[in-house]
Amino acid sequence: MYAEAFIIHLARAQKRRPQVDALKSSLPLPVHIVDAVDGAVMTDAQVAAVYRREIHRPRYPFELRKGEIGCFLSHRKAWQEIVDRQLDAGLIVEDDVEVDAKLFPTVLAMALGNIQPGDFIRFPRRDGTDKGVRIGGEETRPLCQPMQAGLGTQMQLVGRQAAIELLKATERFDRPIDTTLQMRWLSNARVLAAMPVCIRQIDHLLGGTVIQQKTKPLGEVLSREIRRAWYRLSVRVANAAVAR
Questions:
Q1: Which of 123, 125, 186, 206 has the maximal Cβ count within 10 Å?
Q2: What is the pLDDT of residues 194-242, one digit of tens each?
Q3: Domain count of the chain?
């Protein structure tokens, strides 16, 4: 098993550069920096080439912001690196992640020891988001297959075949990367979760998110929450049907 690490970093996010350096020293693998796609400078034609609404069902109820499109494309760049470098697997890390110095090395070693070529192993940032059947690892450091993966793409270990499958399935996309990964039926990649939680997201310490968000009226906020809840229920029902 040979793996390398890829830190996704947006060049203009200069406040995050010290954290990138800290990550490089804390990851026990050869490390590469993936220059993140800056969605803010994408043209309408560039967006249209990769993003279109209502490709898949259930329908995603919101239009993606350019920052979300850039985030998705940045992860696709990392998947392509895994394929191009002919790695067995790649550890993909976003630049606002901090690892638990005590837990992380053993959880990563467990994931590396159990990953199959078609596996996408998440490192959740919260407890309780990726509950599922244990399929490997140890009692205290299990590898689980959740019915529905949790949200967020802060860190994941991606097998080469999984990278190939995900690249094929997401040449065009219609929703954020984490909700895309929740659709178990979309690709042949197997989405797993490595436990216990051994990372945390520290974007609040690094100047906040690099995905721009606008303040919305209360009525719109409530409407979005209702549509979001309905969408999440629809995905859960679809995943349950696939599992039968």
A1: 123
A2: 999 999 999 888 876 655 556 678 878 889 999 999 999 999 999 999 8
A3: 1
Name the pTM for this structure. 0.93
Predicted confidence (pLDDT) per residue in 41-82, tens digit: 999 999 999 999 999 999 999 999 999 999 999 999 999 999
CATH code of residue 27: 3.90.550
CA distances from 78 to 73, 84, 109, 220 (A): 9, 10, 21, 35
Tell me the pLDDT tens digit for each residue of 220-232. 888 999 999 999 9
Q: Can you give the pLDDT at residue 209?
A: 63
The string of DSSP letters for the chain reads: --EEEEEEE-TT-GGGHHHHHHHHHH-SS-EEEEE---GGG--HHHHHHHB-SS-SSSPP-SPPPHHHHHHHHHHHHHHHHHHHTT-SEEEEEETTEEE-TTTHHHHHHHHHHH--TTEEEE--SSTTSS-EEEEEE-SSSEEEEESSPPS--SEEEEEHHHHHHHHHHTSSBSS-HHHHHT-TTSSSPEEEEESS--EEE-GGGTTS-SS------HHHHHHHHHHHHHHHHHHHHHHHHHH-
145: which strand partners? 133
CA 130, CA 123: separation in Å to the nearest integer?
A: 9
Q: How far is CA 75 from the centre of its chain?
A: 7
- Burial class (CB within 10 angstroms; exposed 0-12, middle 13-18, buried 19+) of 234: middle
Q: 99 versus 131: which is more confidently predicted?
A: 99
